[in-house]
Amino acid sequence: MEEFYTKEEQEEIQLQLNELIGACPKCLTDANQKLIVKAFKLADRAHKGIRRKSGEPYIFHPLAVARIVAEEIGLGTKGVVAALLHDVVEDTDYTVEDISTMFSPKIASIVDGLTKLEVFFDNTESKQAENFRKLLLSMVEDVRVILIKLADRLHNMRTLDSMPENKRLKIAGETLYIYAPLAHRLGLYAIKTELEDLSLKYEHPNVYDDISKKIVESSLRQLNSINEFSAPIKEKLTEAGYKFEIKGRPKSIYSIWSKMQKKDLPFEEIYDVLAIRIVFTPLPGMSEKTQCWTIYSMITDIYKPKPDRLRDWISVPKANGYEALHATFMSSHGNWVEVQIRSERMDEIAEKGFAAHWKYKENSDKESELDNWLKRIRELLENPDDDSLEFLDDFKLNLFASEIVVFTPKGDKITMPNGATALDMAFEIHSDLGYRCIGAKVNYKLVPLSYKLKSGDQVEILTSKKQTPKWEWFDFVTTAKAKARIKQAFRKERKKFIGKGEKILEKYLTEKKLAINSKILRKLQTHYNAKNKDELYFKIGKGIIDLKDASKVLSDKPYNKWVRYWKLSFGFGKEGNKPKVDKKKPLLLTDDKEQHNFTIANCCHPIPGDDVIAYQDDDDNLILHSRNCKVAIKLMSSHGDRIIPAQWESQKILSYIAVIKITGIDSLGIVSKLTKVISDDQNVNMRSIHVESHDGIFEGLIHIYIHHTKDLNNLILKLMKIKGIHTVIRQERQNSK
Ligand code: MN
Fold it and tell me: Rounded to the nearest 5°, which phi and psi values hold at 594?
């Protein structure tokens, strides 16, 4: 390795290797250590000469991943070796067979699984639930593949700066919606939390900085409250002979943010809720369970408990292994305080998941304990369980969404993805059945095409010869097959009209003793505003263009020349001339709309000043979403390669629509006061106002045109000052009233 690395790098690599071996308590034997060194040497040779964007030698990455696998996940030799080799087949000339010969078929199959996962993620546009589930259960024979992939992702997130900028948002989005829930499900809380925080840091740098700053500012106040609350508890526990630690329950930046979003509350109201954790060393001769309850009972002597908030995860641990006693008490200031009571063992399991289990099993064969753990993970992945699925909502990938099985009238079984509709099923059986489908009978009841099927349904597809495919169908088909068939039908139809249009034009020109040539076509295209000749034919064929005034065009009067000149030189009326977008640079959103013709997303209506991203759709249109927008977050995870970070330039000319919601006490003249404040404001324009009032409370929705969030914030401050007004908030989504 001499010629490729500097002396310092060489020393650092050696140091990391030694630390890796030291961090793997399951790799103690000589044979195991030799295996690790051998894997390191192969990886080093394979990645030789390659450096990451940060400039550091690539080998640091597999070394770091292997270290996470050993230290933070708790895998043994096979896992560490596979982690060292995880990018070798993907990025270099070595094959799975090479690894099988050099190491073992088992290690080769883990590396193979990791390579396939990588390819799968890079090449799959939309990570549908059914794809993902199949991936987990069939592609992955060994659960270590998933664990090593998590470690790989964690290291990539820790070093996201050394990834290309255009990939960062994609990686962060995927992490939040695939890997963090996965880590949660496997009980790897520490990893889950870190993944979430890092995603937030890259997706919403401002939010992240803001919250971290506030945490620092509030920490002293928080510490004082904790000390005050825990002082009498400390006294009691010490008297009873316990060794323990009481600390504030760390709240991750991401968890604070998501609570702020969900509950629509400011930072303070979430952060200041006191939560503490008591971690104790169990006294000999008594079960941990009993001791948790003893400690609980001791606290009830000091503070009043809230019985309906007691959660017993000791008698029945969570499916992912979590154990603890959760309780809520009232402080002497009258605030509720959440208290978690855990033994040291429970605490470690809570942080490290099952990886910590083996440590507490004495006199057991450690490798077989690890096997038990891996088996348990496999079960977790295969058997969805309500308790641990609660964190997955419709927007996130439902990793474990099961397929549904439905039946034809003859009793044939058809497997469909969850969420499939009657129309999906029609296309699944035969494309003609899909094209002609007008509805279905499900369990003998008539239902529309868009009906969502459930497992066990008996479905009869109803057809009509008159039916033709409709564009609206895209809104409710879910399978790739149905979507492809519908598109195909439209392509066919278009071709038919193009042919027809060409014939009509030919006939017309023959009558005029002319023939189709490029000059005539160009004239007609310009006149009828068609992008190309196919569009011209299509419009003629469909009857959108009739050739009544074509003779005028063909005689080529000067007037027409002028029109053409004007159109060309000003770029008006010319579609399909969209500017190229450089995805590596943030998109600058200027007042000059000609430069980048972006549209504002309907779901979140961002305005200048908001954090935004642009999504490039199939027709290369740029659609601007707010970074908080749920639709955008979904797009980031599924179509990350089409996401372009965007930045507002100074905005003075264009106006954007924003909606504010106002509540207050209904009083005479309040509406005129509101409208006066708005119309006096030079920087905003009111478009509409809608007020509803009941029981003396009024609620108003005001649509206004503004240039920038600054103007909006100023206006909100002014409105807040009106007597009787309670809240003035910006409505993020226009549609949800
Ligand atoms: Mn990697």
Answer: -65, -30
Cα-to-centroid distance, 329 and ligand 1 (Å): 46
Write down which residue in 474, 489, 504 finishes a domain.
489
Question: 531 CA distance to ligand 1 centroid (A)?
Answer: 45
**Does residue 448 fall inside a structural domain?**
yes
**Ligand 1 centroid vs 87 CA: distance in angstroms?**
5
373 shares its domain with 467: yes
Q: Which of 12, 56, 91, 210 is catalytic?
A: 91
- The candidate with the shortest Cα–Cα distance to 702, out of 686, 715, 724, is 686
What is the torsional sign of CA 172, 176, 181, 183?
A: positive
**Domain limit, last residue, from 615, 648, 681:** 648
Domain total in the chain: 6
> Is residue 560 in a domain?
no
**Please, what's the largest Cα pairwise distance for the chain?**
111
- Residue 577 belongs to a domain: yes
Ligand 1 center to 152 CA (angstroms): 5
pLDDT in tens, 145-159: 888 999 999 999 999
* Claim to verify: residue 631 and residue 616 sit in the same structural domain: yes
Catalytic site includes residue 386: no
Q: What is the pLDDT of residue 562?
A: 45
Residue at 183: amino acid letter:
A
β-pairing, 685-694 vs 622-626, is unpaired
User: If you measure from the C-alpha of residue 420 to the centroid of ligand 1, how many angstroms do you get, rounded to a whole number?
Assistant: 35
Q: In which residue are the tokens 């890997």 written?
A: 179
User: In whole angstroms, what is the distance from residue 428 CA to residue 414 CA?
Assistant: 9
Residue 231 buriedness (CB in 10 A; 0-12 / 13-18 / 19+): exposed
User: Distance between CA atoms of 605 and 600, rounded to whole angstroms?
Assistant: 6
Out of 90, 165, 493, 681, the active site residue is 90
How many angstroms does the Cα of residue 82 sit away from the middle of ligand 1? Answer: 11
Neighbours of 734 (CB within 10 A): 15
Containing H/E element for 404? strand 404-407
Q: How far apart, in whole angstroms, are the C-alpha atoms of residue 607 and residue 589?
A: 11
State the burial class of residue 216 (Cβ atoms within 10 Å of its Cβ: 0-12, 13-18, 19+): exposed
Do both 400 and 497 map to the same domain? no
Q: Is 90 one of the annotated active-site residues of the chain?
A: yes
User: Are both 665 and 634 inside the same structural domain?
Assistant: no
Helix axes 77-84, 30-46, angle to 10 degrees: 10
Residue 735 falls within a domain, yes or no? no
Ligand 1 is a single-atom ion; what residues have CB below 5 A from it? 87, 152
Residue 551 · residue 578 · CB < 8 Å: no
How many angstroms separate the CA atoms of 328 and 70, rounded? Answer: 36
Question: Cβ(684)–Cβ(711) under 8 Å?
Answer: yes
Asked if residue 27 and residue 61 are part of one domain, the reply reads yes
pTM over 0.85: no
Residue type, 508: Y
For 516-566, the pLDDT digits (tens) are: 888 888 888 888 878 788 888 988 988 878 887 787 777 755 444 444 444
Please report how the helices 165-174 and 630-638 are oriented relative to each other, as an axis angle in degrees rounded to 10: 110
- pLDDT given for residue 379 in this prediction: 61
Domain enclosing residue 504, as ranges: 492-555
Res 301: pLDDT: 93
